[in-house]
Q: What sequence folds into this?
């Protein structure tokens, strides 16, 4: 006999009365439900949210950043940003569906995404001067977080019918997605191309939004779970 | 073991409000869910409670199952979530309670099982035990266990390999 052949706890079965009670309880409240839309449709919806927040926000604030960028810089920044948004959208959708694939933890996505974008910024922006590092940086951070908030709310509206078995991870995934929308607004709007400004203050939007998303969703949905089981 | 497609079909009919389908699903899946909880060394009474709680949770969120997706990872992800919640609640209660004296040890049920499986399983870390139970009790594939535990297939393989090594060592001892 090999350990692989072990039959664990043979003969243990639930009390038939318990099983009957469960079946009766479920049958009492049985009505048809509509399954959640396909994952692809939900991801497409989130990408629409991303564009619906980032583009109008930058239009309102002014496309100063993108106007100053060369086509090469634009091509180096926006496609990877869009790819990260796609990954964050997929992670958010999967986090709200029990038993979905999770190739990586949403926190790893936030961290890896920031590292990847930082590497791109290091290659693109040679100006290492600090200038008015803190005042300009705080203004950008506020703007990024301000526009991440509506993206988070819209994402939550789209995904709220789902159910997260890992609340913190689901919140972190949604927060990362919203943070990337905030980062996109800053890249379109901010014409300050000093390396440290972009690396520190623009990218900070993503982990801050991810942490905020994890905290808000963890505590918010904990209460909802308790209500669900009443 | 029930063919997966048949279970998935029952789940779809459950979503459509078919009472016979839900009864069949509960009858077929309850024994393996019950064993999943028992294998985590909760009492039989607690396993019954967890089973009820899991089915109620499944009922509340049955719309989150997507037809065409494998059913068992969805089901076990919810069962696992219920178990973790139960464990946290029990820990909070235990912290508030003051133990007045040690309880006498309850003798283990005298089931003839050859090797002491419970003791061998107890030697495994919780994450490895959970993987073994899903693979051996529920008959799930590595990919399905990875989905249910929100981890990668590589991580599940590694946990299963380590668990088998420990079990083999204990069995041969």
A:
């Amino acid at each position: 006999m090999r350990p692989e052949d072990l039959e664990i706890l043979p003969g243990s079965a639930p009390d038939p009365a318990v099983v009957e009670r469960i079946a009766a309880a479920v049958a009492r409240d049985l009505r048809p439900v509509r399954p959640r839309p396909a994952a692809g449709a939900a991801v497409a919806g989130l990408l629409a949210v991303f564009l619906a927040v980032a583009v109008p926000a930058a239009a309102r604030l002014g496309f100063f950043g993108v106007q100053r960028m060369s086509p090469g810089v634009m091509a180096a920044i926006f496609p990877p940003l869009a790819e990260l948004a796609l990954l964050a959208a997929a992670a958010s959708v999967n986090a709200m569906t029990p038993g979905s694939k999770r190739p990586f933890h949403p926190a790893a996505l936030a961290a890896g995404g920031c590292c990847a974008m930082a590497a791109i910024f290091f290659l693109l922006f040679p100006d290492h001067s600090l200038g008015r590092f803190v005042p300009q940086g705080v203004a950008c951070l506020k703007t990024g977080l301000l526009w991440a908030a509506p993206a988070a709310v819209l994402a939550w509206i789209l995904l709220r019918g789902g159910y997260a078995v890992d609340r913190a991870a689901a919140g972190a995934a949604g927060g990362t997605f919203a943070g990337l929308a905030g980062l996109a607004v800053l890249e379109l709007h901010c014409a300050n191309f000093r390396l440290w400004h972009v690396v520190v203050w623009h990218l900070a939007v993503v982990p801050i939004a991810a942490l905020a998303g994890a905290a808000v969703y963890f505590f918010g949905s904990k209460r909802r779970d308790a209500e669900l089981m009443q | 073991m029930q063919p997966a497609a048949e279970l998935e079909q029952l789940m779809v009919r459950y979503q459509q409000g078919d009472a016979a389908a839900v009864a069949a699903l509960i009858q077929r899946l309850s024994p393996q869910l019950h064993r999943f909880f028992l294998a985590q060394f909760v009492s039989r009474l607690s396993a019954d409670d967890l089973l009820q709680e899991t089915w109620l949770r499944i009922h509340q969120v049955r719309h989150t199952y997507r037809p065409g997706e494998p059913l068992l990872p969805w089901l076990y992800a919810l069962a696992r979530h219920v178990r973790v919640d139960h464990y946290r609640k029990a820990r909070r209660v235990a912290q508030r309670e003051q133990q007045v004296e040690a309880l006498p040890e309850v003798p283990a049920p005298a089931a003839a099982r050859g090797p002491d499986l419970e003791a061998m399983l107890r030697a495994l870390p919780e994450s490895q035990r959970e993987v073994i139970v899903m693979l051996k009790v529920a008959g799930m594939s590595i990919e399905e266990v990875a989905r249910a535990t929100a981890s990668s297939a590589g991580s599940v393989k590694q946990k299963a390999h380590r668990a088998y090594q420990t079990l083999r060592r204990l069995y041969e001892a």
User: Anything to note?
Assistant: Chain B has a mean pLDDT of 84. The first helix of chain B runs from residue 4 to 15.
